[in-house]
């Protein structure tokens, strides 16, 4: 009978390249490609327009953006989903758009490759 114990496992070559790509398609990597960037001034208080940008060069990403604000002394939250292609950006909004100083907070809470 042959001894089946080995010091190292046998190397099995995987010819399916998509398995290798799938290992890199994590939410963490997609989140790294999704960036919030500021644009030109908006509103009377000097806040800047916010954009979500896909800094990746090859694949579109989907993102979920959470927006929080206070209205009539109540916390409000809304989520929006965007598809952003490589090196493209999507306008999100202005954090302080008007004279009332009402503030909208934007945050990318999830990202994935499409």
Major sheet? 3 strands, antiparallel
Order of helices and strands: HHEEEEEE
Strand order of the largest sheet: 1-2-5
First-to-last CA distance: 51 Å
What does this structure look like?
This protein has helices at 17-24, 27-33, and strands at 34-41, 48-54, 61-71, 74-84, 89-93, 105-113. It is mainly beta and 114 residues long. The strands form two sheets. It has a three-stranded antiparallel beta sheet. Strands 4-3-6 form a three-stranded antiparallel beta sheet.
Characterize this entry briefly.
By secondary structure, this protein is mostly beta strands. 13% of the residues lie in helices and 45% in strands.
Topology readout:
Layout (H helix, E strand, L loop, with lengths): L16 H8 L2 H7 E8 L6 E7 L6 E11 L2 E11 L4 E5 L11 E9 L1
Antiparallel strand pairs: 1-2, 2-5, 3-4, 3-6
Annotation keywords:
45% strand, mainly beta, 3-stranded antiparallel beta sheet, single chain, 114 residues, 13% helix
